[in-house]
Amino acid sequence: NLEKQYLRLTTFPKAQDVRPLSVLKRSIVHIKKKYIETEDFKWANEQLKSMRQDLTVQGLRNDFVLEVYETHARILLEHGDLNEFNQCQTMIKSLTVGLSSVAQGKDTNDESLEIECFNSNQGQEVNKKLGENPLLRQSKDSADEFGAYRLLYALVQKDWGEMTKELLNANSIVKSEDKSNAEEDQCRQRVSSCEHAVLVAKSVIHNDYHSFFRLYESAMNLSTYLMDFLVQRVRKGAYERIVASYRP
After folding, report:
1. Residue 3: enclosing H or E segment and its boundaries?
2. In this structure, what DSSP letter does residue 80 have?
3. Which of 135, 139, 142, 51 is nearest to 101 (CA)?
4. What is the pLDDT along the chain (248 residues), one digit of tens a residue?
5. What is the reported pTM?
6. Which helix (DSSP H) or strand (DSSP E) does residue 116 occupy?
7. Closest alpha carbon to 111 in 124, 123, 125, 93
8. Residue 118 in 3-state DSSP?
9. Contact in structure between 147 and 197 (CB atoms under 8 Å)
10. What are phi and psi of 18, to 5 degrees?
11. How far apart are CA 248 and CA 246, in angstroms?
12. Whole-angstrom distance, CA of residue 88 vs CA of residue 52
């Protein structure tokens, strides 16, 4: 079936209840098409969670898995579901950057960083650690996009330790893009998503509300949805600074 209700697992599912990769590839096309037509977030969210579950119990790790998590993360951002979004971005980071770069103790809920796979023939449990597998590679645009999201998410959560790591990562991505553009002898027409996110972080840290709202208007991809969670904080800081400047 292309559609499947999401149910939290209490025992390992039967083989006939888990959709194989070939079906899941058709399912993601169906989900995207129907979501664009209906904009039914509740339905799309349930379907993508069910798909993630089928991928997880099979221990799959390939570019299609990356596509599913990226798609779900974007839809979750559009609807402001940061808890589920963090599950997706944490898994994306573990798939592309590695477990050593994923903060310990982060709640990944259904998508545990250690996937438990079962051999149905022998009836034995087999543990497959993601860290033992080669890392996947995002496209240059996706790496830039999600690098920006991780930085902005850390800023929203006031996770300064993680934000420092993501600032370094974002700067690394920006430098890599600059080098790539120089080699291709191309001039960038706009800043990258990571470069934009770095500027946003600086504007918040330095209480530069003018720059923040200018950057808000020029936000790239879905960064605006994360910046929405910063607006009240920045406005409050701006009011306090304005009032303080007029105090006798």
Report:
1. none
2. T
3. 135
4. 899 999 888 888 888 889 999 999 999 999 999 999 999 999 999 999 999 999 999 999 999 999 999 999 999 999 999 999 999 999 999 999 875 555 444 444 554 443 444 444 433 443 444 445 788 999 999 999 999 999 999 999 999 999 999 998 888 888 776 666 554 555 455 579 999 999 999 999 999 999 999 999 999 999 999 999 999 999 999 999 889 888 87
5. 0.82
6. strand 114-119
7. 93
8. strand
9. yes
10. -110, 125
11. 6
12. 10
Q: How many helices (H) and strands (E) does the chain have?
A: 9, 2
Distance CA 212, CA 208 (A): 6
Q: Using N-to-C axis directions, what is the helix angle for 140-156 and 223-246, rounded to 10°?
A: 40
Amino acid letter, residue 231: V
DSSP 8-state code for residue 17: G
Name the residue among 204, 206, 147, 210 with its Cα closest to residue 173.
147
What pLDDT is attached to residue 28? 97
Residue 128's H or E segment, with its range, is strand 124-129
pLDDT of residue 184: 52
> How far is residue 12 from each of residues 37, 57, 109, 119, 123, measured CA to CA in Å?
34, 8, 16, 11, 11
How many Å apart are CA 185 and CA 120, to the nearest integer?
54
Q: Indicate the SS3 state at residue 14.
A: coil
> What token pair was written down for 50?
């069910």
The tokens for 24 are 């899941």
Domain borders along the chain are 15-132, 140-246
Report how far residue 146's alpha carbon sits from residue 138's, in angstroms, rounded to the nearest whole number. Answer: 10
